[in-house]
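Predict structure. Chain length: 331.
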Amino acid sequence: MENINYKALVVEELDGVFNSSVKFLNTDDLPKGEVIVQVHYSSLNYKDALSVSGNKGITKKYPHTPGIDAAGKVVFSENEEFQIGDAVIVTGYDLGMNTAGGFGQYISVPAEWVVKLPKGLTLKESMIIGTAGFTAGISISRLLGLVKPSDGKVLVSGATGGVGSVALSILSKIGYDAVAISGKDSEYEFIKSLGAVEIFPRSQFQEVDKRPMLSAQYAGAIDTVGGPILENILKLIQPMGAVTTCGSVASTQLNMTVFPFILRGISLIGISAQNYPTSLRAGLWSKLANEWKPDNIVNLYTEISLSEINVAVSRILDGKLKGRTIIKMIE
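Prediction complete.
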């Protein structure tokens, strides 16, 4: 394909200080990949904010273009499964971590990273869902075999965040009574609009309770923060219940006994959207586009431009964003 100049957010390191700005790059400088996609929309995730901030645990080498999510149209393909003009989604794997990501107007990736946009979703809607919503979808799919709506209420921590907000929307749509945990009392109306039947302040769950178990009250949970909140959730789960965990903003440590697991038989399930099997991705995206598509999807997002990413990064790191933030990449 012809060389194309395009805009991208580029993070650079100088003497240990990281700065990001919008620059012009050329498609010739993209990594060698089987499929090149013109990115129409991307989205902002916590992992992106860490990459923009220079977290070497996320991105090892700079200069770098973050963005673990991208949706757009194929402009070049060496793989017969994808044709020029196909609308596609690329999330997870190494995109935006150590491979130039969706905060650039073009990406070049292996074909196995690419999923065709399912019927029922626009490119924009796919990024409102994005990795956060995909993570929520994985969490719910793992809970389904262990926790039925009739078993009882399901807790969701980090309810105003990307994963939590989409999880609440999907759970309520498919018949679960979802209970939200949130530290943002100013956003309770937003949380109720997602379908939460109850809301508890984060403070009720974040204090360490040294008792090995608490009164069993919930059939399951989707935890997005870790730490003491996850510990307390696990102690509240009914026999044979299940909890998924996908985040560690509060802490990566669990300081508790094994009693909830061996006396109540509960399950703790780790969730990784980045490494979700290629063979399962299209099926899950199809669910998210149809029977699991949030009814209130238009209320879940804020749209920004490429030049506004740095401000949004500061807000997500300060815990001030709610729902999903998508980036319109085509001007």
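Summary: The chain is about 25% helix and 30% strand.
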